[in-house]
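Class, look over these structure tokens:
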Amino acid sequence: MNYKKLNNILGWFTFALALIVYTLTLEPTAGWWDCGEYIATAYKLQVGHPPGAPLFQMVGRFFSLFAFGDTMNVAMMINFMSATVSALTIMFLFWTITRLAIKMVRTENEMTFGQQVVVLGSGLVGALAYTFSDSFWFSAVEGEVYAMSSFFTAVVFWAILKWEEAADQKHSIRWIVLIAYLVGLSIGVHLLNLLAIPAIAYIYYFKKYKATSKGIILTGAISIFLLSFIMYIVIPWIVDLAAKFELVFVNNFGLPFNSGIIVYFSLIITGLVFGLRYTQRRGKLIANTALLSLAFILIGYSSFMMLVIRANTNTPINENNPDDAISLLSYLNREQYGTWPLFTGQYYSAPLDPQNPYSDGSPIYIRDKKVGKYVMTDSRKGDIPNFDPKFKTVLPRMYSAQENHIRAYKSWGKIKGVPIQAINNSGEPETLIKPTMGENLRFMFRYQISHMYFRYFMWNFAGRQNDLH
């Protein structure tokens, strides 16, 4: 039996084995945390918590049909969806490992029997190790988004390896377009899939170019740009511009509701079609591929229209009611959760900036059908606190002013800090303690990286020393 046939058979074997294991250990009803909400919103296509998971819900709705009207089995069938996509993840992981392992020997046509055993054996060991890992097995048997998110990550990385295999063929670009579409679809499940973009970029680079230090660094920078472009521009700006168009066309021009949305999406479609035709006629392959990929990302991303459609029907679960572009923007931006500093920001002890304590946020509008306009319900004047610059830092890990959080910061970071003269929030001069960068990093490594990441990571391979969560 040749290698390709064995590789395919063993790939499907890992799928079948994983599916049997996950089915036998399936949760028969709703699990903890968000599972109950996800199952309920998937079953009736309702609107769950921001930022939503519309593709997960639509696929979950399909699987719920196999309960054949017995509501007692709906949760189990949606859990079975997680088992199915998790088993598919294992299959694609097997094929990914064997594809990478081949590079360490020879080509498919030149392998000895021993090398085939090593390659296929490595695929089996890696895939089955992941099958029975604590974290993945846990998510594979419950109605949560992480199983499907893992599936998309596995399949997009497998797809870039298929592109690499066919890179010199005429129509190899179709794999890139497929990856773009899968990335767009994955946005409707969870944003974790976007983390595969740097790996995809490096596969492309090492196939197309001779590796150099400069090229590796540049590829890393481009991959981070692409990830940021999708996460911070495509996802929010598409809806943000739609909301702005809608406000202008309805409030300023006096046109009916949704007129701005129709014009906006007409312009996007026209622009993409024109750009594709122009780049094709001029032979600009890279630009044409980029536009085509963007178009397919948007097609995948359009799953979020389901939430708007269902919100307009006033479903029983309708969190934040994202029934138009304006409320959908707030929903996608997770505004109900507030904000927190990521790259720069304040320490927990920071007082407000005495010169400029607050700045304005974006006003909130709702649709008023009686007046035929969007009405401002909250101007959000003075809504955003500005903190004293003396208490700001890069990579702020200890920013929350909640008492229980501060106690944790002091315990994990062993805070002594440095005294700083400042104006407190009552307008009085006061000596406040500012943590040092060393203490900030100590908290990050001891708590966030060691306790909250590596401890859970090692659950998969070294077991648990306790049941603390």
